[in-house]
Design goal:
alpha+beta; two-stranded antiparallel ribbon; 4-stranded mixed beta sheet
Length: about 140
């Protein structure tokens, strides 16, 4: 049986100005970026401090079930758990910065779901979100 690569399609959101958010399917390169964003969450926390305005916000949902025998989204939970300190630092930085906190509130993005981020040179955010695991 052939093993499928972890880097598969997932649901993403395009960066849009203002209050708009839109979802769309993306490919394996975005999956690599998502994993990198989770692994580098602590480094992004330092970058958040410098953000003065947030011109746009994009959200990548990592809770999308994968098709075509692909690895399921629980793998992202493993990455987030392994980097819990970095994820926590990122959430704290997003909450402490007034510009990012207001952007999250405006778009209704709960801090507790954010596990990674990419930040553009102009302050636009691409946030990687993951629903917490269901309680047993």
């Amino acid at each position: 049986m052939r093993r499928r690569n972890l880097f598969t399609a997932l649901l993403s959101v395009a960066l849009l100005p203002g209050d708009a958010l839109a979802y769309g399917l993306i490919g394996s390169s975005e999956t690599q970026m998502a994993i990198s964003a989770i692994q580098n969450a602590g480094r992004r926390a330092r970058d958040v401090k410098a953000i003065k305005t947030v011109p746009s916000v994009g959200v990548v949902s990592l809770n999308v079930p994968h098709s075509n025998n692909c690895t399921d989204f629980s793998q992202y939970q493993v990455f987030a758990q392994r980097n819990a300190a970095g994820v926590s630092a990122l959430r704290n930085a997003l909450s402490a910065n007034p510009a990012t906190r207001q952007a999250l509130e405006r778009h209704g993005i709960p801090l507790g779901m954010i596990v990674g981020a990419r930040i553009s040179s102009k302050g636009s955010l691409r946030l990687y979100v993951l629903n917490p695991p269901a309680a047993n």
